[in-house]
Amino acid sequence: MLINTLFVVFVFSPIVFVLLLLFLQKCLSHNKLIILANINILSVAIFFNYLIFNKLNTNIILWEIIDIYDIKANFSIKADALSIYMLNIVSNISFIVHMYSIKYMQNDEGKLRFTIYLSTFTFAMFILVVADNMIQIFIGWEGVGLISYLLIGFWYDKSDALEAAKKAFIVNRISDFALLFGIIVIVHTFQGIDFDSILNNNKILEAKELIIFKFYNKSLNKLDLCCIFLLIGCMGKSAQILFHIWLPDAMKGPTPASALIHAATMVTAGIFLIVRCNLLFSNSDIILNIVLYIGILTALFGAISAVSQDDIKKIIAYSTCSQLGYMFAACGTKAFTAAMFHLLTHAFFKALLFLGAGSIIHSINGEQNIKKMGKLANYIPYTFSMMLVGSMNLSGVYPLSGFFSKDLILQNLYISNHKCVFYIALLVSILTTIYCTRLIFYVFIKDNNFNFCINEINPHDPPFLMKLAMIILSIGSIFFGILEKSLGENSINFWENIIIKDNLKLKEIIPIHIQFIINSIGTVFFIISMIFFYKKTSISNTISNKNNITFFEKLTKNAFYFDLIYEKIFLRSFYTIVKYMNDFIEKRFFNNITNYLVLYCFSMAKNQQKIYNGQISHYAMIIFLFTIGMIYYIGMRHIFYII
């Protein structure tokens, strides 16, 4: 079929164009090559947009990668509703970021290299999303990890960027090792590696019967073990608590890279894998509860940390942690539809916030501290309107897209009989409105006595292409939720086509007062927070007073000292072990053995010198004696053989 051929072509299109850019970089100007890359990504996005409502469900086998005993796996393209849905999100956000980068990076010497990284990153995410088996998932998984390292450390002449890149790479390697071990356990359990073998009800039931060990009335089975390792892998990529430390530091790269990593690609890979393997997780109640609690703790931690940050990009980064926690919590209640819907809306409004932050930073010569900004609404009104739309979406203000997707998650948390988790989610929603309004207030409204004209900064709105990128994101952020609601029954059919198994109880009766709280909490607290900050009430004064910083404020400003704790426990222990290995094992053991071998070789060489002294007569005598000895030996063997 033509559609299948085109599907494969457009999946591989980004990497083909990367090779083309590398080949043509000496023939054409960098600006022309960047335009070509943008046209390519635009064509990919248009094609996948065309496919979104097509009921395409096929596996396109390309070549064989594994054939060992009964385990077979092909490198193939899984073209189903879920993969097309994700391809839409990735390709659209990728194109917008590519377009935004044309002007944002125009004065950077490495702008072509940056475009190549973006396209390669997009391709790696495509491979992950269309994977038909766990090996292919792992290839894409490692691909986005590698390119994220290059993007975060793009400005490699800055030491902090290099440190942030290494941090992201190492933390993800730890969780990726767990994912790799999970793949091994899956192969051993299901005797297969492709999703048709894994997502099989009969095999899943058999795996539940294989008990590994029991503790009182609790037991851990083979299915639980598979899900544990998959979960740890997902926690690393999606920056859940304990593995979150790489995400805030990932802001050291260019802002468009931050938008791509945080909005729709790398960090959503963990959510995608859980949804893809939802049959496994749905049959493991223990792991589902763990997913739920990890998600809600991450949401709370991210929201509390974001409230106290002064770096505009770090505020949005911790916000990403928080929203990913929401998605994890939704998956923990089997509300996979709600998680995927929030993933879609979050991709647009979070990319909008990052690109808006990039516009702010770009206009005031790289300043990122919101305490050094103020009254920017007078200077960059367009960026102000875009940031306001993004912040209102993030807060869940009616009738924007963020309202509908967050509303869906809160409903499912309430009907899941985890009332404590539900009320924590409400608290997170309140905290979200606080850090969103705080950002808007300090950057655009509050007078911080920072005169831009005197300091010759002269803030200005971005060029047309950067404006266009933000307006496209704002349209998606405003209308996607309303569009989903207006689809009615078609919407339910659409989601059922995407998610294999879901526990979304849309018709469940929720008390009117709870429904009112869920629907109004974002809008009401956004307005209240804006009034409090605008009128400089005690709340804003407490937050802005540098001379009266409490222990809790220090704790939250330093993100609960996770980095310091990891440094004390893990890094210093590792350095101690390495020092011991160097001082004792390397120097005293291996060096002594090496020195002994060297001395032995020298002594052997000296003995050899006595024989090989350079005199021909001496050599002739040795050859003569050796020949006589061989003749004697052969002769004696022959005599004994005859006897």
UniProtKB/TrEMBL annotation:
Annotated ranges, domain NADH-Ubiquinone oxidoreductase (complex I) chain 5 N-terminal: 66-114
Annotated transmembrane regions: 6-24, 33-53, 82-102, 114-131, 137-156, 177-193, 228-247, 259-281, 287-308, 347-364, 376-401, 421-444, 464-483, 512-534, 617-635
GO cellular component: endomembrane system; membrane
Keywords: Membrane, Transmembrane, Transmembrane helix
Pfam families in alphabetical order: Proton_antipo_M (PF00361), Proton_antipo_N (PF00662)
Domain spans labelled NADH:quinone oxidoreductase/Mrp antiporter transmembrane: 131-431
Signal sequence coordinates: none
Membrane topology listed for this record: Multi-pass membrane protein
Principal location listed in the UniProt entry: membrane
Example GO biological process: electron transport coupled proton transport
Subcellular location: Endomembrane system; Membrane
One term of GO molecular function: NADH dehydrogenase activity
NCBIfam families from the UniProt entry: NDH_I_L, PRK06590.1
Protein name: NADH-quinone oxidoreductase subunit L
High-level lineage: Bacteria, Pseudomonadati, Pseudomonadota, Alphaproteobacteria, Rickettsiales
